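Shift notes (night). Ran Regulatory protein TetR while the centrifuge was going.
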Amino acid sequence: MTRSTPVSPQTVQHAARDLFASQGYRGTSMKDIAQVLGVSAPNLYNHVPSKQVLLYTIMDVAMDRALDALEAALAGTADVAEQLRLATVATVLDFLENPAEVTSCNTEIRSLVEPYRTTIIGKRDAYGARIRAIVERGCAEGRFHVRDPRTASYLILEMGNSAKAWFRPAGTYTARQVAEQYADYALRIVGCTDAADHPAGR
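Came back to this:
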């Protein structure tokens, strides 16, 4: 961003998002954000009330986007194996397409004050519970075979972080191809052997 970039709540959020991801919330000052935008630090307060609200807003928007994408993916089928596949695709895609927001959500919850912290933790837990419910239903239906659905769901949720650690947009695979491959791995984690054939990296 340069001085020619109009300053708005959105541009402030985008600048803060990238700085929080690269140098942490505590390592970022409002002056740092202002420098990226080419304005004075006091000018930022015309658009956002505080750095704390800025962090919360970034996380809240990110969590709502992830939850909406998950529900949209699951709405297309009632088959539990296909739901797990689609949920994994949605999860991994969110990590790969929004790495800065995901980094903040994963590392900066400790920096939130109440009631912001409780709100974000609640949304994070709701996402995890949705994945766990799919695994539990698959086990109840005899489609999945795992000792502990909770542990299996944690492994599946962690796939996003795993992919984000090595994925590069200019690399061999697209984000969609990586997400599809990880979805196949998720079905193997839960011991599903009767899912429809979904070739990896399609």
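Confidence is low (pLDDT under 50) at residues 197-202. The chain is about 65% helix and 0% strand.
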